């Protein structure tokens, strides 16, 4: 029984050393763009493009 536990620990250690999943921080990185009016950076998903320039939602609300 002890040999089986040691074997399982060795297999898990080899897996973690050689086949470790990639860092998920890299996958979650987002493209950031600068607001043309207030110069803050917002994610490209949240930014709105108008006349070829990016704007944050706050600046577009203030403009209207």
Short note summarizing the structure:
The chain is an alpha+beta fold and 64 residues long. It is built from three helices and four strands.
Element layout with pairings:
Blueprint: H1 2-18, H2 24-27, E1 32-34, E2 41-43, E3 48-50, E4 53-55, H3 57-63
Antiparallel strand pairs: 1-2, 3-4
Can you tell me about this structure?
- The protein is an alpha+beta fold.
- It is 44% helix and 19% strand.
- The strands form two sheets. The chain has a two-stranded antiparallel ribbon with strand order 1-2. Strands 3-4 form a two-stranded antiparallel sheet.
- Strand 1 (32-34) and strand 2 form a beta hairpin.
- The mean pLDDT is 85.
Strand order of the largest sheet: 1-2
Helix content: 40-55%
Count every beta strand, where a strand is a DSSP E run of 2 or more residues.
4
Evaluate the radius of gyration. Answer: 24 Å
Helix/strand order: HHEEEEH
Shape: rod-shaped
The end-to-end distance, rounded to whole angstroms, is 73 Å
User: Kindly state the mean pLDDT as a whole number?
Assistant: 85
Domains, number: 1
Number of helices: 3
């Amino acid at each position: 029984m002890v040999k089986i536990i040691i074997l399982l620990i060795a297999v898990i250690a080899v897996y973690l050393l050689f086949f470790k999943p990639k860092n998920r921080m890299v996958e979650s990185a987002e493209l950031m763009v600068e607001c043309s009016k207030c110069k803050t950076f917002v994610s490209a998903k949240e930014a709105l493009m108008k006349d070829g320039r990016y704007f944050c939602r706050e600046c577009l609300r203030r403009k209207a």
